[in-house]
Amino acid sequence: MLNKFLYFIALIFSITIFTSCDEDETGTNNATVEFSISGLEDLGNDYVYEGWLIVDGSAISTGTFSVDANGGLSENSFSLTKDQVDNASTYVLTIEPSPDNDPAPSSVHVLAGDFSGNSANLTIDHPAALGNDFTSSAGKYILATPTDGAENNELSGIWFLDLSTGAPTTGLSLPTLPDGWAYEGWAVIEGVPVSTGTFTDVNGMDAAAPYSGPMGGPPFPGEDFITNAPGNLSFPTSLAGGTAVISIEPVPDNSVAPFTLKPLVSSISASANDHVTFTMGQNLDFPTGQVNR
């Protein structure tokens, strides 16, 4: 009788262990990460957003998602192991190529936030993202066409410099960007954004001059819109009544329009004169979000 009793106890014990292990294998050891993010934009077909949990210094992907033209997210929750979720210190959002053969995060970090309890507030100024809130950003510009010669089509060019002292000086005050990002100047002409070129140094020329005339330009970001007009535009033109923009762009960048991060914007007066220094205003409406675990 005692042997039968001991056998029964052993059987119950083994069933309990088997059931416990089976529950772990079928998902009781999983946990969900949910997030809400506003201000992101559609990346097109070549890129996606990807979330990452930082656990003991290592990045663990929470999965990829896309954003539609209305800012809607294709996914807003992902399942990981409970240990990964519980031990995460930080959430980071990146932009990744699609398809992507690299299992590690790209250098293009958009948002990040540290967990406090079960939530993390996501901002661009977190050190794991762009690391700056851009409240110190400032900009000045003039309308002129130095590459087209003197007194020719002077309202058809924009240069981000300061001419208020009579001599051209640096017109932009912007923080240094981390790897994965570059600044880009824009002129919105008849509702169409046209790039003046990308740059990382406000004290030098930008990376391109596809529309400029045959003469050299000043050593500052800017562009003359003299030749090779894109789309239905015609050059030379007048930038009066348009808009000047400085954006922050991911690198690489597959869009012909400014990215959602635009720290400096200025409406150009319809009565604007050339060689007059104009001041840009701040535009600090950046993406934000929250992650819950």
Please give a structural write-up:
The protein is mostly beta strands. It has two domains: 30-131, no CATH class; 138-284, no CATH class. The chain has two helices and 20 strands. The strands form four sheets. An eight-stranded antiparallel β-sheet has the order 3-2-5-6-7-20-1-4. A hairpin with a 2-residue loop joins strand 6 and strand 7 (119-122). The longest helix is centred in the N-terminal third of the chain and has 27 residues, at 2-28. It is elongated and about 75 Å long.
Q: How would you briefly describe this protein structure?
A:
The chain has two helices and 20 strands.
Can you tag this structure with a few keywords?
single chain, 293 residues, mainly beta, 2 domains, eight-stranded antiparallel β-sheet, five-stranded antiparallel β-sheet, 20 strands, 38% strand, disordered N terminus
Q: What is the strand tally?
A: 20
Give the radius of gyration: 27 Å
Instruction: For the largest sheet, list the strands in their spatial order.
Output: 3-2-5-6-7-20-1-4
Estimate percent helicity.
Answer: 10-25%
User: Could you list the spans in which at least 5 consecutive residues all have pLDDT below 50?
Assistant: 1-26
- Number of helical runs? 2
Number of domains: 2
The fraction of residues assigned to DSSP E strands is 35-45%
Overall 3D geometry?
Answer: elongated
- Alpha-beta content class: mainly beta
Largest sheet: 8 strands, antiparallel
Listing every helix as H and every strand as E from the N terminus to the C terminus, the arrangement reads HEEEEHEEEEEEEEEEEEEEEE
